[in-house]
Amino acid sequence: MASYQVSSRHKHGPIWRTSVLFNKCIFVSGAEHLQQLSKQEQLHRNTTACFPPHHRALFGHHSVLVTSGEEHARLRSLITPALQPSLYEEEIRMAVIAFVSRCKNEKGYFPLVDAFKQFTLSVALRIVLGEYRWQEWMKSDNNNTRLVALLDDFSIWSKGLLSPPTSFIPFTASYYAMKARKRIRHILLEVIEEEKEVLNSRDEGSCNRNQKKSLIERLLRATTNNTAANSSLTEEAIVDNIFTLVFAGTDTTASVLTSAFFELAKNDEVRERLQACVETEELIENNNDSADETLRAFLSEVQRCYPAAPFTMRNIADTGANGIDLGHKYGRVSPGFNITYAIAGTLLDDEVSYPNPSKFDMDSWLKKRDSKPPQNWAFGGGCRTCPGRFLSVAESVALLRAVLSRKHGFQWTLRGDQDLTFSYTPGYFPKDGKSCTQASPSPTCFVGQHTLSSFWTIAHVNPPVFGTTKRGSGMPPSQNAHALVIASSASC
Questions:
Q1: 243 sits in which H/E element
Q2: Residue 81, preceding bond cis, omega within 30 degrees?
Q3: Confidence (pTM)
Q4: Hey, which of 1, 134, 226, 320 would disulfide with 310, CB 3.0 to 4.6 Å?
């Protein structure tokens, strides 16, 4: 899809007409044109979600992803406040600690893509359930079974999003996905009932306002704290939007992290710059702003160079607004057309907004006095911009900060015997990112303050395997053949 958008821009210009699944469709690319489209969409509110029926069934008909118009706006107004990163710092921190600990316990090589998917799914479920419930379930055999079932079933469910719409045929991926959805829904409704009992047992005066809350509790409070009937979330709406948020917060964020590690393994200069920035901030207590700003700039450039969501599509509804105006040169798009934000084509080929787009340049995203950073279209645009984008960035920044720490982090290089050509599945992942090869490199270990750390290596196999004996050593990676398979040892 990315290469199609770039080649179409070169052939037809920034806006072109085509057909998608027998429907008339307009592709819009270029930051200036996307900005115009976004303003038109927000002004007229005359676009509707464009998803096939089996996707609507998997997400749920109350999902903010598939609803449109006033209902979509209402759901966003209730859900977005519950997704602020500051509300879930503890959940993210604990997930990062668990990720690092799990990786250190691995023997030999293991697939980094899978590790990222496990991390992002664990963050999502910690947020949904609440850290306190996550920890309780981990300690209880009965509840631990429920937690494992959730993790397994979300994996089965997500595969159904890529499968043919054959849920009516037994033993197909789509069939199993719908079955998994029913099991997940049952568990989530049980948790919702538990939360409702707790809320009903409290009086407002005794409620601790600083108490850590789960996403489910926050969404229930959004329901119970509003008396207007049209400002509430039903239990089914809560369940449907949890499916949406778990999906949006796992594959996409895992894709960004995969691309970030891929780029850092190739780019010694950027890696050393970020490590130095994190190290400097570690020496200054309670001062994380500078490092976080730099890490966010790095992630924005990763999202530009490796767009996890290459496009987003709407249908122009006949609401009396008479379509969408794309300007004097391109005219008005009539109701009935699909209109597509060509995100990948914009991020990879718009030389006006992103000078020299083939070069990795994180400096363009840093705030400057004489100019402001370009707009990041990686999370979509218009009235349907991803509501969890800030939470996704916060997770990624926290993980990168931990990994890049010279005191507690690790070093990695790439090995050259696997195909890391990126493809959409639906996130943007390397083809061989899940393969696992056992090996026995010789990592250098050191003991930090109350911490046993190791250098982890994705070593070259052809030429012979390289371990890492100091920071910055290891063979420079090749651009066209790499493997995101990591090796680790926690023993010295």
A1: helix 235-266
A2: no
A3: 0.82
A4: 1
